[in-house]
Amino acid sequence: MTVNIKISRYNAKLDIADLTFIVFFSSTVISVVLSKVFGFMHISRFATPFFLWGLTFLFVLCLIKYSLKRWLNSVVLYFGIVLLFLVSYIITPELAEWYSNSSWGLAYRVFRIDRGLYAFFAILLVREPKKILRNLKIVGFIWTPYLIWQAVQRIQLGYFIVTENDGITTSKSLYTLSYGYNAVFIGLIFFMIYKKNKNKIYLALGWMLCCLAITFGSRGSLIVLGCYFLIWELLKLRTDLSKQRIIRTFLLICLVVIVVPFYDYIIAALGSVLESIGIQSRTLQSLLSSAISDTNGREKIWGAAIEQINRYFPLGAGAFGDRLSAGKVLAWGYCHSIILEMLASFGLVGAIVLCVMVNKSIKIIVSDMDYELVNLFVLFFSCSIKLLISDSFWYNAHFWGALALAYLYKMRTKELQQQECSENA
User: Fold this and answer.
1) Residue 333: left (phi > 0), alpha (psi -120 to 50), or beta?
2) Contacts of 149 (CB under 8 A, 6+ apart)
3) What count of Cα atoms within 13 Å lies in the side-chain half-sphere of residue 297?
4) Fewest beta carbons within 10 Å, which of 101, 156, 206, 240?
5) In terms of pTM, does the model score above 0.70?
6) Residue 332 DSSP SS3
7) Burial level of 205, CB count in 10 A (0-12/13-18/19+)?
């Protein structure tokens, strides 16, 4: 039996919290649009500061509008993270170089208002799962034209035009990791909406974006996609043990197990077949080169991180601790694995935190408490699975979004327990 406990009465109108949420999760698209508009007026250098100050203003308006009770947990988390970095610096002064790094340090990558950490705040501002999903639908419609535009450019030119971190400089790139992850995230949003209202337009949009993610993204986007559908197939087995359902689940597991490890070879083989029948283009060549280059030196990074784990065992080197070893291999410093990052940074404590997160995630996913909240958590959890092979959890909005949804789940569980106690009293 499904039990729905509402934190607040659902209001279909957009308010300042909804607007902040939408702008935050659409920040990449809005930044690019602003850079084009400001560039037309020959003032491109003001585009990024304008957007950052605008987003900051929205968060401040929310701070003013809503009571401290609504903000308290976000504030505690924020200052807790600041304290964590301070303690880490005291314990391991060598980390100062990474904390102050202009491209990968704290000010630019962790605490800037449009970075992943603030996904936690944006979700807790909205709170109501129905409104979060409604807002994500709007985010999806903002992202979709941009993702299609990027794909068309890639097909026409044979490369991506990438806007650099300053929001002004652009460069040519055969390959960009972010495209696949962004496209699959938006595609999964549309799948969620289709599951709710059965409108086939959303199903078509979802498949289109997921195909774009697979075509122009990395194998990581396949892992996200496979994780999302595999979770739902396994959950359906709880109520449907039919032969057809079991076969479907088995085939999906086989597909994920076979395709992900051998993605490069499959793409290379497909490219050879297409070339053999006379299909040649810059797009095909760039697809082949992107697949082959996808490992990106991870073996060296992971080896260096494992050595550091042994060196700083059992307490770890502190927050950003993996940068001390991985930073010697690649400029951005993080080790492309949340497991190694946690162990290198926090040692045994990191291992315990990982175990707790996995345990809590499983409990939420198999819960019957609130379908919409669980559905949202599965979305953000699946997109966070990329952290096993890519990125840093400090930078990842899906990771912090999943934590916020886990906190909402905890709140609802507490409300349910209080309601049961009052009914039994």
Assistant:
1) left
2) none
3) 14
4) 156
5) yes
6) coil
7) buried
